[in-house]
Amino acid sequence: MGPISHAGWEAHGGGLMGHFGVYKTHEVLAAHFFWPRMLRDVKRLVARCTTCQKAKSRLSNHGLYMPLPVPTSPWLDISMDFVLGLPRTKKGRDSIFVVVDRFSKMAHFIPCHKTDDASSIVYGYIPRAPIDLFSLDAAETPHIDAVAHVEQMIDLHAQTHQNIAAANVKYQVAGSKGRKHITFAPGDMVWLHLRKDRFPTLRRSKLMPRAAGPFKVLTKINDNAYILDLPAEFGVSTSFNVADLKPYVGEDEELPSRTTSVLEGEDDEDINYNTSTSTPAAPPSSSARPITRARARDLNFVMLLKNEGPEE
Question: Where is this chain compositionally biased, Low complexity type (predicted)?
């Protein structure tokens, strides 16, 4: 580790330092050291600190608003959910099965039990034979003007589809304000933010890490959803929203040593200002030497003496 990297890490996380942010770390360094582009180096150093990435993680503003596809007719696409933990009725039901048509917004609220299985939810009872899964045909009364009625409903559905699509475009523009469009490719390494509702055991205390990783991206579902190579002990689904992910930029990167415009890639102490081997190297002129805090004080002192002149 070079002197700049060593000084940076000591000011950020060494000794009694508390892994402060960029500007406070820069303030600590600037009180004792100086080198060009110090703030840039401090930003790179803090961004690669593993301890900070785990302890200071928060939900990011990554991912643009992505509305669901608009269905073309009623009851072609539905959403389902359960309302649990309600007071029991006289029939012992304590939950509500909510079914909403995403096209017409028509909703059905079906009372049920918390312990009902899939058959009880769908059919209202447990079928005992295959015939129980089919309903008998009921008598139908034909409409007098069925063709005109069907054409009217088709036109109404088409107009409704256009209106919903136009509204979704407005929602997408408004919902994407202030958010960043960031994507990951399979093989990228990312940090995972640990939500309290999804990882309750890993967020029992506020002193516990708020992020885990880094983990590899296995599959990209879409721009806002990814599958990670998550260990089995986490016990949750491996698909996550992009708002829970943060790029992994590496750690312990060696900060470049201070260079000058005389020779690129060389330290000041290694610069030879005279390329000839027959004569000793001459000291650099005042205009070619790099400006440091100590040299700036010396120059100010020299200018002060010149301005005062010789004593009479």
Answer: 275-293
| AA identity, residue 229 | D
For residue 125, give Cα distances in angstroms to 87, 120, 128, 202: 22, 4, 9, 40
Q: And the tokens for 156? A: 């109404």
Q: Which helix (H) or strand (E) holds 147?
A: helix 146-175
8 Å CB contact between 57 and 210: yes
What interhelical angle do 22-30 and 38-47 show, nearest 10?
Answer: 130
Give me the residue label for tokens 């001459």: 282
Structure tokens at 231: 């260990």
| C-beta of residue 234 within 8 angstroms of C-beta of residue 223 | no
pLDDT of residue 127: 59
pLDDT at 68: 87
Q: DSSP readout, 255-281?
A: PPPP--SSSTT--GGG--S---SSSPP
Instruction: Please tell me the number of Cα atoms within 13 Å of 154 on its side-chain side.
Output: 6
Task: Mark residue 25 as left, alpha or beta (left: phi above 0; alpha: psi -120 to 50; beta: remaining).
Answer: alpha
CA separation for the pair 239, 218 (Å, rounded)? 10
- As a whole number of angstroms, the distance between CA 226 and CA 46 comes to 26
Q: Is 306 strand, coil or helix?
A: helix
Q: Hunting for tokens 């269905």 — which residue is that?
A: 71
Task: Name residues of the chain where pLDDT drops below 50.
Answer: 257-264, 266, 271, 273-287, 312
Are 43 and 221 contacting, i.e. CB atoms less than 8 angstroms apart?
no
Tokens of 202: 């890993």
For residues 115 and 88, what is the distance between their CA atoms, to the nearest angstrom? Answer: 13
